[in-house]
Amino acid sequence: MRKLALGLLVAAVAAVLGVVVATRSGGPGTAAASSHREAPLISQDPTADNTDLYAFVSPDKPSTATIISNWIPGEDPAAGPNYYTFSSTARYDIYADTNGDGRPDISWYVRFKNLPSQFFLGNTQQSYTVTKVEHGKSTIVGKGLLTPPDNIGPRSTPNYASLAAKGVHTLTDGTTIFAGQRDDPFFADVGAIFDLVAIRHGTGATGGGKDFLAGYGVHSIALQVPKSLVDNSSNHVVGIWSATDRQRVTVSHGKARTRWVQVSRLGNPLINEVLIPTGKKDYWNSTSPAQDKQFAQYYKTPILAAVLQKLYPQFGPYPQTNRTDLVSVLLTGLANPKLNYTGATLADELRLNLSIPPTPAGMVNRLGVIGGDLAGYPNGRRLADDVIDIDERVVAGELLGHKLPLGDGVDANDVPNLSSFPYVAAPFSGFDNTKSQATKTSG
Amino acid sequence: MKKLLVLAVALAALALPGVAAAHPLGNFTINRFARVQVSGHRLYVRYVLDLAEIPTYQARQEGVNANAYAGRIARNLHVTIGGRPATLLPVKHALAFPLGVAGLHTMRLELILRGPRFDGAERVTVHDANYTGRLGWKEIVFGATTKSLSDELHAYPKSLLQSPLDVTSAAAQLAPMPDAAPQLTTGKALEAPDRISDSGFTTLIGRRHLSLLVILASLAAALFWGAAHALSPGHGKTIVAAYLVGKRGTAKDAALLGAIVTVTHTVGVFALGLVTLGLSQWIVPDRLYPWINLTAGVMVVSIGITVLRARFRHAHHHHHDHDHHHDHRSLLAVGVSGGLLPCPSALVVLLAAISLHRLAFGLVLIVAFSVGLALSITALGLAAVVAKQAFARRSFEGVLIRALPAVSALVIVVAGVAMTVRALPKVH
Amino acid sequence: MKGRLLIAGTAAVLAAAVLALGGVLRPGRAAAGPGDALPTAVAAELQKGFSAGDTKSEIAGLQAELRIYPHSSKALDTLGLAYQQRARETADPSYYGKAQGILDRALGLDRNDLIATAGLGQLALSRHQFRRALALGLRAKRISPTTAGVYGVIGDAELELGRYPQAFASFDHMNAIKPDVASYARVSYARELLGDTRGAIRAMSLASSAAVGEREASAWTHVQLGLLYLNSGRASHAVAEMRDALALFPSYYFALDGMAQAETSLGNLRSAARLEAEAVAKVPLPQYVGLLGDLKQATGHTRAARREYALIPVIQKLLAANGVRNDLDIALFDVDHGIDLPRALQLARKGYTERPSILGDDVLSWALARNGECRAALPRSERALRLHTQDPVKLFHRGYIAACLGGDARSYYARALALNPRFSLIWAPVARKGLAR
User: Fold this and answer.
1) Contact at CB, A2 and B17, closer than 8 angstroms
2) Does the N-terminal peptide bond of residue A337 adopt cis geometry, omega within 30 degrees of 0?
3) For the whole model, what pTM was predicted?
4) Smaller CB count within 10 Å for chain C: N or C?
């Protein structure tokens, strides 16, 4: 009875107050109130973004070396009307270090100009100038050269192969150049993030992954350099990296002369993504290989080894500290076996030994040096080299005798590469965009 | 006392997330929901339109004619059955203006649209062309019993991993079903303020013209909202009641508790206002919350343990029951914990008062709100005391009556532990 | 190769990194066989959206990833930023709340998470909590002094707090680390404030060319370029820029409002009203609603104008209830429209203490002048122009105060009208009359 009275009392209090206890109440919202200038803070700069770098002795012209550097990730062929071009305000750089000191001995700077009709008709053709700097001397080696337009479709860009062929030019120093849109030759299973594809398919070495970059394009600058220009004729090793610079401006000096600041660089693949910590990325991108000693700690204790330990504990343990083997592969070149060692200076470069002849087409091993094919990564890098699988295995301890068949299950690009310069396949057109089928054909 | 003040400031900071956190959807969204179902041999659409505060205000400026809305919505909802366009006829509607943020109203319109006869299995497509380009939650479901992610625009998911749904076209294979025809929501449920509680209180400060009558009415309203607010979850009601039962409190204790709650709540809101306005440059309040939560939890646990220990001491030593001197410190602690638990609307009022330059009015409003809060808690405490004494008078000499204080203490400890545990993982 | 990272990472290597950063490997999940349906669905979803600048599908991919690996710092960071980007794109403020929750979670995993700290700083800026933004920016700088973005947060906050030399230094430093759309845009704004309109246009053009491929950022730079043209007497250039912005990002509310301003300046009030109404339908910002009301008034739709004006106190109520401070905007509107001038002055004073920028000086001077306190208004107005900003509104206010004190307003009025002949539908005619006198 008393209990009932208590219940009634409480009920009465609540009733008198007429309470609606809103259980679904949320906090108040932030209505838009933006009257100050909100510039974007962390925006991508795809036209300055180096995606991949390749360097190899040309298989069809062994007297030359080919350097291919790609920019602008994930170009969707069907993205019109916003087609892709090089940035007209950036400088695209390819560097060669012939004496192993981490400093450029030969630099090619490429600057693009939009043609007057740029904003109309989706015209993506650009003209460009190539400046070469050697021994502190700057020479214009190509001027008024033209890129082919993007591959938009049979109506806008009919007979694309011949259009693209017109984009191959010869520079005054004897180097051949191509700049323009290409198929992205990189292949990797991005979906592995969710799927851990390697586990799904055993260790992933048996194929069956999905090439998530299939069907997408990039913008390439390809150089075919006579060996004589870059061969030091002692150890024959040349170190290559590429970079992008943008002009620095200051608040008060509106008309000062152009000062370039490097905003992106690339030597060995995946360094910025996997090894360099977030807070150091901007800084790393602004530095040159000669300054790489300060980053050696991140190469020595790669987070990736710890990851592999968790991913494939059955094959562990994986060496996680003092990885001098990684330092030598990525920062000095391999001395033992004698492959592409350039001395004690630590510098992140793609080192190519020009004296090693190219492997004939049918005998190329996608695993490069660890697959017994000395003409592949990490001796330079060919389009067909499977750097994901190679990196996983090397980090797992391949060079320390800890050999594991790791990989992402994607072993080759979705379309065949060309057999001659510029080697990178033509881009998919926006018209017959094949992204949806691309997944079926790879693996 | 100085320590308590520090604690007061800290605890009050708890209220901030409530202010900063976004409403599930913005104040200018137009949200749409359509449920397409076959009942017997007929196709029906149950359509819900939920306008947030600003579109509602604009709609009411122009005058809301539910029939016109129904006709327009039916025309812009394109349904095909087996590839043939189907005509939808509005047959019933319900219209309500639930209270939203800042005393403004929102609008909820529910429609039953009747489609054509439906025989055999057919493919049904729906395309909602109403309010294209307007922000909002857009949802289409098929079937009478299919779950709606937003509970038919009653409860928008707050998961951080859920973007506002944006479905304006959908298709499904449907067949005649024995389901009943769809119905409208009726009565209170339709009017339920599903957006925000306490919004009435926060509007008081914004009144444009202040006459004596308005001020008095506002004070009464603030008192009322405070009392109502105390009954929403939190605010240590359980703890207060359990404490008074456990310590065999008197009516005087209950009143004292009410006074302490009023004072601490008022002080707490002001202190937090100061922190928010003055110290945000040096202190990032977000980083304090977990610690404050933890402190509050630990404080409640210690209250519980104190009561429990006192209980056991009594049980072991002597048995004099009612003339026991209360531990005033623990009474104070209970009051403080009741007064300082988060009360975002009071803070909103304070901030609004500052920004509107109505500091004095704001202060008075908050005091009134706090008094209301305290009245509620006191009433609850009194109820507990009365109930307790009623139990005691009936001579249940036995297990129950002796166990009661210990159980109350345990309740306090458990509540405190729960608070602590919830706070712990966020402290770093 | 950093762009790929955002788009989805690079293959198994990164997959592994995600796991490691997440710190918790779920054996159950790792052991899952091919029958596990979710990841495949997720992968398909991800691939569908593998395109630069597609924030929506990027968000879907990250949400899916976090459902599987809730402790992935990298995914939390990226999602927190992607939500903010989505808020910019859609103007849907619910994304701000989500961004806050996600970034708080990331900080919970690692209190020195750079991206989360800077991201929360950016969020504070969006919410006009400038002091808080500054604190977060400085904290982010302690975590990584070599990351350009942290100087953006710090500089933006300093700017709104009226600390101009410090803000400009922050922007210079940011651009020295990394010239990109973010740092160019800030340098451009600083030059604009300093009255260097040509330099501002040059920097914003660089920003625009560095934003190619990022639709919203790109559209935003075109809008800013348009506004620079608009307030330097080139309204037709402004129209072209706004058109480019709308082509890149259809029905972008910044561009709709910008286009409406440009059309207003060209005297095409009807089409301006149509565009502004479209912008208001998307985002009822008080300044958009105010301009729409003025346009209705100027085209003779008095009742419609009253309706728009009536909406402003409603919005203000909502903002106050949400703890958002925009006293300066409200004060400016009230002063311009002669609403409760003493209260507007109070609001302006209050707004100034929160945002002691040249905007604060300007609004306060204008409120003082309209309340008849021209003597007190003069030093304020001079302070508002102390950077030599070429802003027609501020110049008009300066002239009005000069006239009020018995001086000559004409040079100020002439400059204001030369910059934008219709800088305000209410006050440009006053300036013209003053000039004719």
Assistant:
1) no
2) yes
3) 0.76
4) C
* DSSP-derived secondary structure letter, B139: E
Which of A:286-345 have CB within 8 Å of C?
286, 303-304, 306-308, 310-311
Torsion of CA B272, B276, B277, B279, to 10 degrees: 100
pLDDT per residue as tens digits for the range A374-419: 999 999 999 999 888 888 888 888 888 777 777 766 777 778 889 9
pLDDT in tens, A30-77: 333 445 567 676 667 889 999 899 999 999 999 999 999 999 887 877
Per-residue pLDDT, averaged over A3-11, amounts to 32
**In a 10 Å sphere around its CB, with 0-12 CB exposed, 13-18 middle and 19+ buried, how is residue B333 labelled?**
buried
B101 in contact with chain A, both atoms CB, cutoff 8 A:
yes
User: pLDDT, tens digit, for every residue of C42-91?
Assistant: 333 333 333 345 788 778 878 887 887 788 888 899 899 989 888 888 77
Amino acid present at B215: I
Q: Do B27 and C318 touch (CB under 8 A)?
A: yes
Q: What average pLDDT score do residues A81-86 get?
A: 75
**CB pair distance less than 8 Å for A14 and B231:** yes
Nearest to A21 among B232, B344, B380 (CB): B232
Cross-chain residue pair A311–C30, CB shorter than 8 Å: yes
A 370-389: CB under 8 A from C? 388
A85–chain C Cβ distance below 8 A for any pair: yes
Contact between C379 and C362 (Cβ < 8 Å): no
pLDDT of amino acid A132? 97
Mean pLDDT (chain B) is 74
Cβ within 8 Å, pair A22-B155: no
Q: Which long-range contacts (CB under 8 A, 24 or more apart) does A226-229 make?
A: A226/A63, A226/A64, A226/A174, A226/A175, A227/A57, A227/A63, A227/A64, A227/A65, A227/A354, A229/A106, A229/A173, A229/A174, A229/A175
Give the distance from residue A70's alpha carbon to the nearest chain C alpha carbon, in angstroms. Answer: 9
Query: How far is C104 from chain A, CA to nearest CA, in Å?
Result: 17
Could A49 and C2 be called an inter-chain contact, meaning their C-beta atoms sit closer than 8 Å? yes
Q: Which helix (H) or strand (E) holds A239?
A: strand A237-248
In tens, the pLDDT along B312-357 reads 766 555 544 443 455 666 777 777 766 665 565 666 666 666 655 6
Neighbouring chains of A at 3+ CB pairs under 8 Å are B, C
Pairs of residues, one from chain A and one from chain B, whose beta carbons lie less than 8 Å apart:
96
**pLDDT tens-digit profile of A278-300?**
899 999 999 999 999 999 999 98
Alpha-carbon distances of C354 from C327, C348, C351, rounded to whole Å: 9, 10, 5
Is residue B199's pLDDT more than 70? Answer: no
The CA–CA distances, whole Å, from A340 to A103, A237, A238, A350 equal: 17, 6, 8, 10
A176-183 and B42-51 beta bridge pairing = unpaired
Q: Which chains touch B (3+ CB pairs under 8 A)?
A: A, C
- Find chains touching chain C: ≥3 CB pairs under 8 Å: A, B
Q: With contact defined as beta carbons under 8 Å apart, do A312 and A294 qualify?
A: no
Sign of the CA dihedral C386, C387, C393, C395?
Answer: positive
Interatomic CA distance for residues B29 and B134, integer angstroms: 7
Q: Does A5 touch chain B (CB under 8 A)?
A: yes
CB proximity A33 to B under 8 Å = no
A196 at the C interface (CB within 8 A)? yes
The partner residues of A96 in beta bridges, in order of sequence, read: A106, A240
Structure confidence at residue B425 as a pLDDT band (50, 70, 90) = low
Nearest residue of chain B to residue A17 (CA atoms): B228
**Which of A26, A160, A142, A150 is CA-nearest to residue A81?**
A150
pLDDT digits (tens, 9 = 90+) for B238-271: 677 777 766 667 778 888 878 887 787 788 777 7
